[in-house]
Amino acid sequence: MVAHQGGTGYENPFMSEPILQVTDLTKAFGDVMSVDGVTFDIQKGEILGLLGANGAGKTTAINMVLGIITPTKGSVTVFGKDLSHSRIEILRRMNFCSTYTQLPGNLRVWQNLKVFGKLYRVPDLPKRIDEVLEMLEISHLKNRVSGELSAGEGTRLNLCKALLNRPELLLLDEPTASLDPDIADKVRKVVSRIREEESTTILYTSHNMRDVEEVCDRVVFMHKGKVLFIGTAEETLHHFEEESLEDVFIRVARSGEIKPNRGKQKGEVSK
Amino acid sequence: MSLGNVQALVLRYLYLYTRTPIRAVELLFWPLVHLLVWGYLTVFLQENMNSDFPFKITYLIGAVILWDILFRAQQGVAIFFLEDVWSRNLLNIFAAPVTNADYLGSTYVVGFFRAGVTSTMLGGLSLLLYSFNIFDLGLALLPFIFNLLVFGWALGMISTALIVRWGPAAETLAWAVPFFIQPFAAVYYPVSALPVGLQWVAKSLPCSYVFEGMRGTLNTGEVDWASLGLATGLNVIYLAAAGVIFVRVMNTAREKGLLTKFASQ
Lengths: 271, 265
Ligand SMILES: Nc1ncnc2c1ncn2[C@@H]1O[C@H](COP(=O)(O)OP(=O)(O)O)[C@@H](O)[C@H]1O
Ligand SMILES: [Mg+2]
Fold this sequence. Notes:
- The structure holds 2 protein chains of 2 kinds.
- Chain A contains 9 helices and 10 strands.
- By secondary structure, chain A is an alpha/beta fold.
- Chain A has 2 domains: 176 residues, Rossmann fold, CATH 3.40.50.300; 66 residues, no CATH class.
- Chain A is globular, with a radius of gyration of 19 Å.
- Chain B is globular, with a radius of gyration of 19 Å.
- The structure holds adenosine-5'-diphosphate and magnesium ion.
């Protein structure tokens, strides 16, 4: 194991069978090791935060879980099945939302949701579309042209798409990145709520500490493709001997190396 | 292939066209301009040429209509992909449970519709303006159209593969690829007009048999079924090769992270 494995802080009776298991996941783009031997798992109903500075490898890791990028090494197992063999079957029970994507701007909100609802074979689609719009408080935008929505509305529409099929595993790539604090707060509440109500398992990348502190059960701290530490927010603070996650984040980002707390024996990461 | 997925992807395209009718301009305007230019050139040549010239000038109008079928089918595939690039929707599609076959299947349907819309318009107008009836080709019209659609799809898949491989900078290939082959495809002139070396190139392209066949059929009323059979055979090879290229490039794209690069452009 590259990093410490802390407790989840979230008690779950099905601890034994992870929904997502990532093992020694590695991606090299030429000389750049975007993701370097990453191992972690997520239990059913858990929210795991993937935390790290720009370029830490969060998006690349998420894209490997989606099968949009093929790993150089390592494996991704979802619902107990190997991603490289059962991709379509797995994707049907999964969904994703990223700040880097949009739904086609020239379609109306309901048209976009209908197209994706059909792709994910959502039963009773019209009702589900109303439900997800309601959940993200954008029902009034149903007939609007998607391209005319504000950034915050667009992100919430993206999230609607991601919730359509009641995914068992939801991947969120910086869902709050372009949102004002009010909307970001609402999005965090929705994320927490669907976990409560539907036991959705969530992998959540962010460089926003509030996100992580509020919604994540555990954090995977990444730096330059490597996992520095896995644990609850508290365990992370303890491990790095810092007051806040923000301090940890800044120190890791600036130190530029795996052992962030030089001079302090306790803060070192075992290798 | 999942018919439900194909339906959903085609639906997206239909919404696009019904929501923004201005897009139909592209579908109707350029073919119309083409037809007018070649049509009036035909009229001019007909009036000024002596009658023993062995080349029926109305071929040109038939060529415009048939070429456009190939071009629209190719565009159906290539533009379909680019629409997702332009709207930053590519990752949503490829993160959804959509197989290569679903994706390609829907591009075929869209290509078919596009070709249907323009050829109907061109066929009608050429009859009205130039008394050229495309249905004079008779039963041969069906295999002609079929072969052009299939070859167009193959070219579309290859165009898309090139765009994926070389990135957004290669976008113009979506329009350029058919015109790379046009000089050798014997669209507006017979294969025999080409230098001998290039005649071999022409003979390796399924569409050249269709354009030759069109001229032959208009001339003699006889259909050269043998060469149409050859065209179909060639098409099977092109389509299979294009499919292999497409799938391989998609795999390369997953290895090199090309799809995500599109997304972050
Ligand atoms: N498709 C790609 N081709 C080449 N390098 C890439 C590609 N995608 C990401 N990278 C590189 O991998 C590293 C990690 O990027 P990324 O996963 O986007 O980080 P994060 O999401 O944590 O900001 C960066 O150095 C980035 O430049
Ligand atoms: Mg990122």
